[in-house]
Amino acid sequence: MSYSATLQDHLAHPRNAGELAEANAVAELTNPVCGDRLRLMLRIVNGRIAAARFLAYGCPPTIACGSALAEMLEGMTTAEAAALTRQTLVRALDGLPARKNHAAALAIETLQAALLQL
Amino acid sequence: MRRVYLDNSATTPVDPRVVEAMLPFLTEKFGNASSVHFYGQEARAAVDHARREVASLINARPNECVFLSGGTEANNLAMRGLCEAHEQHGRHIITSAIEHSSVRGICEALEKRGWEVTRLPVYDDGIVRVEDVRAAMRPDTVLVTIMLANNEIGTIQPIAETAALIHEERARGHKHTWLHTDAVQAAGRMTVDVETLGCDLLSLSAHKLYAPKGVGALFVRRSVRLTAQNVGGHQERERRAGTESVPFIVAFGKAAALARAELAERVEHMRRLRDRFEVGVAATVSDIVFNGRRDARLPHLSNISFRYIEGEGLLINLDMQGVAVSTGSACSSGSLEPSPVIRALGRTDELARGSIRFSLGKDTTDADIDYTLEVLPRAVENLRRLSPLYQKALAEQACAPV
User: Fold this and answer.
1) Which residue of A lies nearest to B395 if distances are taken between CA atoms?
2) In chain A, at which end, N or C, are there fewer CB atoms within 10 A of the end residue's CB?
3) In three state form, how does the secondary structure of B295-350 look?
4) Topology of domain B4-10+263-399, per CATH?
C-alpha cells in the first residue's frame, strides 16, 4: 500500500495535535470495525472556529485525516465546517487508498458529532 | 538517507556469492536439465549438486528433497499431497494456532472438503505443548503440521518431541499419521536436522537464506507417499512436474552451502545484535511487551508490542527515517483483524495492533542497531503524543492516589 507524500508529511509532522484546554465542542468517535479512534476538540467563538485540535489512535490515514481536518477547520465558520465532506479531506491528503476511505468517514463523523454539541 | 533493513523474516538480500554461482546458468549454461545432450547434462549436474547441498543443510538424503517454487508450494505439496494420498485412513489434521498463512489457508481449503482441523493453543509464550498434541490425536488423524519456528515471534516449537509422540503411536499400530513442519523461518537461523527432528515432511524457502525468490524445497522422507499437485512431467521423480529453474536451484544450493558453513557465526552475530537491540529498547521506551518466549526464539527476531499506538503508523514513521520493519497491525496485512499470532498469545487487540517485528540478518551491523535505537524511541513518542489512549492513561496516572 502506498500513501501520498502529503499524507506521510501529516504523519511525520501532525498539525494541530494535542489537547485543547478551552474547547467548547468536543467529540471522540471509534470505528467499531477496526478500533480506530479520533478525538476532535474545537473552540468556537461567535460562530467561527478559533482553534481546533485532534488526537488519534489508528492507522496512518486516520492520523493524517485528523491532522488535515484540524488544520483546515481553524478560521472556518461552523456553517462552512458542517459542509465539509469526505472528498474534501481525501483531496487535502492527495488521495487515500480505496480501502482507507473509512478514515475520512470517521473524521467527518467526528466533526459532525462535535458540531452537534453547539 | 541512511537505510536499515530489519525485515529479514520477510525476505533477505541475495548474497553476492550466490549471484555469482547462479549467473552462468542464466547465460552460457542455459540447458534444460531433462535434455540428453551436453547442455542438458551440464544443467542436470548442477541441479544434482544443489540438491546435495540443500540435503546437507537439513541432514537429509538428496533424493528426499524436491525442488519447487518456494515455501507456500512446499506446504501445499506436503499437506494436500499427503492428505489426498491417505484420506482412506482418516480426515483429521492437527495444527497450531500460529501457523504461517499458507498453512492456515491450506487447512481452511481442506476443511471445505470435509477434513476436520484441530488448532492447538500456544499459551502466552507462543509455544505448542506436546501434551496438547497427544490429547488431540485421534485414530483418524492423518497429518500433524506444526511449524519449526514462528515467522512473527520466532518461537521454536517442540517438533522432535511431537515426532517422538507420533513414533510411539506408530509402535502401537497407528501407522497412518505423518508429521510435517514448516521450517521456512528456521533454516539458516538454527540447526535443522531431519533426523533429530524426526519429521516426515519439511518445507524450505530459498529467499529467507540469501537466495532469490521463486525457489524452495520439500523434504519428503523415504517411503512417505504423496499425491503430486503439479502433474504432466517426469521432473523431481514425478513429485513436481515442470522444467526445473536451474539458475534458482543452483542459487539455492550455494546459499544452503553457505548457510551450513556459516551457521554458528551468523547465529552468534544476530543473537548478539538482537539482544543488544532489546536491552536498548527496554531502556528507552516505556509501556512495551516482548512477544514470544525469550529463551526459545530464533536468534534474529524481536517482536515488540508498543502500547497506545498502532503498528502501521510506527512502521511508516520508521520507514520515513530509513528503517524497514513489519507489523502485525491489520492495516498492513489488508485484513480487518490484527495479527492472529499475537492474538493467540492472549494479548488484547490493542497490543496485537501495536506489534512490530524487527528481524535482523547476517549483514546487520552494530551501526544499524545504533541508528534504529536512535530513531525508534522518538517515533514511538511522537505517535503517543497524538494518541487519545495514551493521553487517557497519563490522565489516569496523574489522578491515581500516590
Assistant:
1) A19
2) C
3) CCECCCEEEEEECCCCHHHHHHHHHHCCEECEECCHHHHCCCCCCHHHHHCCCCHH
4) Aspartate Aminotransferase, domain 1 (3.90.1150)
